[in-house]
Amino acid sequence: MEQDIKLKDVLYRYQNKEICTEDVISFLEEEVERSEIVFDRDRPSRCGFPEFIYGASKTASQIESAVRKIKQSGQQVLVTRLNKKKYNKLKKTFPEAVYDSSAEALILKNNKAAEPKGKIVIVTAGTSDIPVAMEAKYTAELCSCNVKTYFDIGVAGIHRLFSSIEKIRKADAVICIAGMEGALPSVLAGLVSCPVIAVPTSVGYGTSLQGFTPLFAMLTSCASGVTVVNINNGFGAACAAIRIINTRAI
Asked: For the structural domain made of 117-249, what CATH number should be given?
């Protein structure tokens, strides 16, 4: 609040020609240097999706400050990798926020619902991959994308994939999430014509190496054109799919 008063005072003095343009620029540069959180207001017009908040390496106080800035701008709010302890500190300030403890995601929607666009299908190989899928789902939905999910249809019971494949083929982009040996994206990419974004997860026993085995499998997929993101990175996969949807909408 005090910072807002200072800014209003500077603008008032500029309007009354008490200070020059260079003084205003100098004040703003100093404020940016002092601030721990610098909000990127132009990201929606520049990248096609708003700035979201990575919560794992921030304090609850830093996250609160970031959420306030994004909320005041009228944009949608998503905090990823937010543990329950930090959420408990934030929920009193933002009681209207929705929190998914399995996905460690906090969602705060505004009242400006945009027209839904495109169709993203999110597929998981197993039930254990669902938290990563939900992170992707929340990200895509906050960017006004239509999202459909198909969970637990991996290669251990391949008939489950085949029973849904015709619906999956109608997607503009597919996010395919798998741990263990990471085989599902290769299978799926051989059955659909739309872009497939593969997400390796850290689900699996010893030699799955906390997600490196499915990561290597996806990177060396024999199905041409599969895009691969980082381990457990449902957020990054959704952002890739959103870029595809935005391009198709032009």
From this structure: 3.40.50.1970
